[in-house]
Amino acid sequence: MPRYRMIVEYDGGPYVGWQRQDNGPSVQGAIEKAIFSASGDTVSVRGAGRTDSGVHAMGQVIHADLSKEWSPFKLQNALNAHLKLAGDKVAILDVETASEFFDARFSALRRHYLYRIISRRAPLALEAGKAWWVPKVLDHEVMHAAAQTLVGRHDFSTFRSAHCQANSPVRTLDRLDVTRNGELIEIRATAQSFLHNQIRSFAGTLKLAGEGKWTPEDVRAALEARDRKACGPVAPPDGLYFMQVDYPEVITDRRKPVDENDEGDDLS
Amino acid sequence: MPRYRMIVEYDGGPYVGWQRQDNGPSVQGAIEKAIFSASGDTVSVRGAGRTDSGVHAMGQVIHADLSKEWSPFKLQNALNAHLKLAGDKVAILDVETASEFFDARFSALRRHYLYRIISRRAPLALEAGKAWWVPKVLDHEVMHAAAQTLVGRHDFSTFRSAHCQANSPVRTLDRLDVTRNGELIEIRATAQSFLHNQIRSFAGTLKLAGEGKWTPEDVRAALEARDRKACGPVAPPDGLYFMQVDYPEVITDRRKPVDENDEGDDLS
Which of A11, A22, A52, A94 is catalytic? Predict the structure, then answer.
């Protein structure tokens, strides 16, 4: 069975999330339907991250095993045609053949997310559903300073949803940068994997720092509390974008999924 | 009657265009309804440009006369609250009191538009309806060179919709710049006023230059033909954004609207 690796963009607004669920349309389901329409194959595709409802992607990575060989070019065009026909807000940006050892989830070395805040008085018209509207003045430099207290290897119990299924709350956060461009504030987060709601919990907490309610020291204290109750309010999904996944250049070996929930990205 | 000047953002997708019409919801109608809900005043608001259906705005400017004095801050919040309640994709970015001589349309010195093209193989998921999808490689430098043949004072009959009501096809185009940032190509146009479909006609024609079908000389020849039939296909409204309007710092005098269609911006 030839394996294909694909980069996927989607507007998370109309979906219950990445993962197939009974309560509504999922991105995974939309792609699996398109694969069936194009090839007749009934497959289960795996994504690098199981994004929540309303969370967007510019660079989700997936893999799928098909019953016959396709040229990547034709497969991409066929899937995009079927996705468009179905009215899905999902686009396949790239297709490559992949080694049988490649696993979109378990081969991932690093995941990159972006969280967008628009800080202005007026509600969002053009960007509705595509950013978090914060009608307050935010100091992005204070937010960035507060963010630096979170970088590194920590027990992130404070910034983890009660529904998080990961065995361990310990993660290594490689990067959490806050920058501003006019009314747009961007938070960029990188780690091998994240806990459920981790980035949205960061964003909600950093916003408190930005408006002067918390100091960077308060954010550090919240981390050290290792207690969900110490977290700021979780920011809405609208602002979150799954941007990119890094993989080893050559994958020669199937990495062992010791623990499904711990190794992979657990719903950001 | 105190006069207010407002800056307005909207997603043109759900509307028949700026102007009130019988066949569906308009941006003008949405704002007039919000003013009525907030103040009880039945007003007719005037916009600096009468954008077509599907055309967006980040900086449309309007004026409205209300029966009583409002603090700009309160008026903005009240209008935005009513627009949100009505489910409109319209936001009031700024409100100022204005001189009785200020006219959003006839006082305008210059109008700035942006046309966004996304040039890539895959259809648009996140930017659907917000840019023109062109699944071809475009040379933005050739597009820019071709655009320069259009700058200046010309008879723009070639780039004018058959429905254009302006008396004269002569306009002075101050700027038509084409730049690229990754897969995004931006065309920025500035003039005192534009003809109906002028910028979308430019965009459709420049795209032909970008894909190598037309040379910059062909674009110049199309301009010189002064014939609608010489124009490339008109680009879709999705990519067009009304960005900004410049006014004199002090408006001491009511400028005479010699000709409604000629002076103002005639639907881009």
Answer: A52
Q: For chain A, say whether B96 makes contact (Cβ under 8 Å).
A: no
Nearest CA-CA partner of A43 in A60, A67, A20: A67
Are the CB atoms for A65 and A1 separated by under 8 Å?
A: yes
Q: What is the CA radius of gyration of chain A?
A: 19
Q: What is the pLDDT of residues A168-217, one digit of tens each?
A: 999 999 999 999 999 999 999 999 999 999 999 999 999 999 999 999 99
A250 touches chain B (CB under 8 A): no
Q: Is B113 annotated as a binding residue?
A: yes
Residue A259 pLDDT > 60: no
Q: What is the pLDDT of residues B26-84, one digit of tens each?
A: 999 999 999 999 999 999 999 999 999 999 999 999 999 999 999 999 999 999 999 99
Q: Is B90 on the interface with A (CB under 8 A)?
A: yes
Q: Check CB contact under 8 Å for B123 and A83.
A: yes
Alpha helices of chain A — where are they, by DSSP H?
Answer: 27-39, 72-85, 140-148, 198-210, 216-225, 260-263
Catalytic residue status for A266: no
Task: Looking at the complex, report in whole angstroms how far the Cα of residue B173 sits from the nearest Cα belonging to chain A.
Answer: 27
Q: Would you give the DSSP letter of residue A238?
A: G
Which residues on A lie below 8 Å from B91 (Cβ)?
122-125
* Close Cβ partners of A185 (under 8 Å, ≥ 6 residues apart): A116, A117, A118, A119, A138, A140, A143, A178, A179, A210
Domains of chain A: 3-107 (3.30.70.580), 111-243 (3.30.70.660)
Please report the ipTM that was assigned to this predicted complex.
0.91
Backbone φ and ψ of B182, nearest 5°: 65, -125
Whether the CB-CB separation of B168 and B264 falls below 8 Å is answered with: no
